[in-house]
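Let's study my pick:
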Amino acid sequence: MAITLNSGFKMPIIGLGVWRMESQQVKDLIHNSIKIGYRHFDCAADYKNEAEVGVALKEAFTSGLVKREDLFITTKLWNSDHGHVIEACKDSLKKLQLDYLDLYLVHFPVATRHTGVGTTDSALGEDGVLDIDTTISLETTWRAMEDLVSMGLVRSIGISNYDIFLTRDCLAYSKIKPAVNQIETHPYFQRDSLIKFCQKHGVCVTAHTPLGGAAANTEWFGTVSCLDDQVLKGLAEKYKKSTAQIALRWGIQRNTVVIPKSSKLERLKENFQVFDFELSKEDMELIRSMDKKYRTNQPARFWGIDLFA
């Protein structure tokens, strides 16, 4: 299954996120996921493993495991490179060993002090607070993103972690509309208004953290996962699926793209097996009642400031 973006390109509705994948695991995870059926991989300069992903992709292409044109590869511009968009994109392409990206996203709607292309540092001031660059507007960043399309380096461009106001502004000043807004959304953080706004205006929503972060966000941010909720456990028993499969299917039925992360082969298989059942309207409403407006991804822990405040 795929969603047709406003750029005309098709984006597989389920992908694999490579955040926090250990470097030595990347090749096997990428190759195994391709064998399972994944054709969409979500990367970022800030994940610090683009080079390892690139090695895995090159081997997959040269061995005949998959063709480049059959994959959808996303990566993201880091905050410190807003004033160096073209250089940052070329750096990611070099590491990924690709001629073009299917999708390039502005990772966060904030420019920070430049620390060198591709270094993806989050520079803090002496006060321990993120050193935000107030001389670079998001419109300026977007103009450079649009240049990447005309240069043939990127097929579609998009945004990430933008709210309604920032998305509306981007739609207003853009010549090339954002194809995607990648946001945190899961049963505990449903964000219906933002999703409705994006979809109404032709912007596809990708759900990062579609399982509520699970163990990764519990470890990093001390947050609670929706997968332990009794509602999802009850539905898992009813449909004879895992709670993760229920959460992913719910995301798909909202017409959002889901990009779960896993470093375990069995979980990779399980997360992909979500096309052989459908949640009833009543059960979709039941999950809707779970919303706690609970954000699990909390970068303020590292930045000394809550950009979502």
Notes: Residues 50-62 form the longest helix (13 residues). The radius of gyration is 19 Å. The mean pLDDT is 94.
